[in-house]
Specification:
Blueprint: H1 7-17, H2 22-29, H3 33-40, H4 48-57, H5 62-71, H6 89-101, E1 107-110, E2 116-119, H7 121-131, H8 146-151, H9 163-181, H10 184-195, E3 218-222, E4 225-234, H11 242-246, E5 248-254, H12 257-269
Antiparallel strand pairs: 1-2, 1-5, 3-4, 4-5
Helix pairs in contact: 2-3, 2-4, 4-5, 9-10
Length: 270
């Protein structure tokens, strides 16, 4: 949704985007359908509290709540702090704790669009093993984007035995993000990923065996080394800052004994 659009246009766009009728949104916001209609037709100007009520009823992320408030002529409510800012010091300590607890297995902190923010030693070892280069030197001019690294043909794709299945699951997740946040940035990421050559169509259905594994593992293979890992993704449960809401922590776990052995050996050697 374009941030420059007026409040009434944004409100209607979000209602349509969420697939809600005026009656459904009015009921969720506990206002009359007539009042909502007047807001969408610019016959009434919303109060600050009304904007917030509608934003919550539409389940808008904090960033998009701020955009809606600005469109209505009000100052944004939710701060967007740098991850290393004093305001997020407690969050930063929690992230560092999670990263440390995940050792010797990899863990990554990323933002909403999969730009790498932090990683643990296990993550550094995995990247260095797969790419043959340190993830820290030289420091890249642009943030490392894990989505591009996974999907692009010249990055990790050649090292993933089951890349087609993994990419399909991942891109569908980005599609769900684009639907949820309604931003051009996430929509642009989805377009970029699906434009890479060889990327499976979102409508594709991969075959499922009679007894599929409970989770899809990523099967890395380089030389004689085979690594099978599955992931968990965590978010902060009660965010009240835009950055805090958009943080994700992806932790990798070994799917077999051989993979666990490799990471433990690398940790002991390092």
């Amino acid at each position: 949704m374009e941030a420059k659009a007026g409040f009434a246009s944004q409100l209607k766009w979000w209602r349509d985007h969420r697939g809600m009728s005026q009656l459904a949104l009015a009921g969720a916001a506990e206002i009359s359908q007539r009042h909502l209609s007047f807001l969408e037709r610019r016959r009434n100007a919303p109060s600050r509290e009304m904007v917030r009520r509608l934003a919550v009823a539409l389940d808008l992320p904090l960033r998009q709540q701020n955009v809606l408030l600005r469109a209505a002529g009000y100052a944004p409510i939710w701060q967007e702090s740098a991850l290393d800012a004093p305001a997020l010091a407690a969050v930063g300590r929690a992230l560092d704790f999670i990263l440390a607890q995940q050792e010797p297995y990899p863990a990554f902190v990323v933002d909403r669009r999969w730009n790498l923010l932090r990683l643990n030693q296990g993550g550094k070892r995995l990247v260095e093993f797969l790419t043959g280069a340190s993830i820290l030197a030289p420091k890249p001019a642009q943030p490392i984007n894990l989505a591009d690294a996974l999907v692009a043909p010249d990055a990790l794709r050649p090292l993933i035995e089951n890349w087609h299945d993994v990419a399909l699951y991942f891109i569908r997740g980005v599609q769900a993000d684009a639907l949820a946040d309604g931003t051009e940035e996430t929509a642009s990421l989805l377009r970029r990923l699906t434009a890479y050559p060889g990327v499976p169509r979102l409508s594709h259905m991969h075959p499922v065996g009679a007894a599929p594994e409970p989770v899809l593992s990523i099967h890395f293979a380089k030389g004689a080394t085979s690594l099978k890992l599955f992931t968990t993704i965590a978010t902060l449960g009660t965010p009240q800052d835009v950055t805090a809401q958009e943080i994700r922590i992806e932790c990798f776990f070994p799917a077999d004994a051989g993979t666990a052995k490799h990471f433990k050996a690398w940790s002991s050697a390092g």
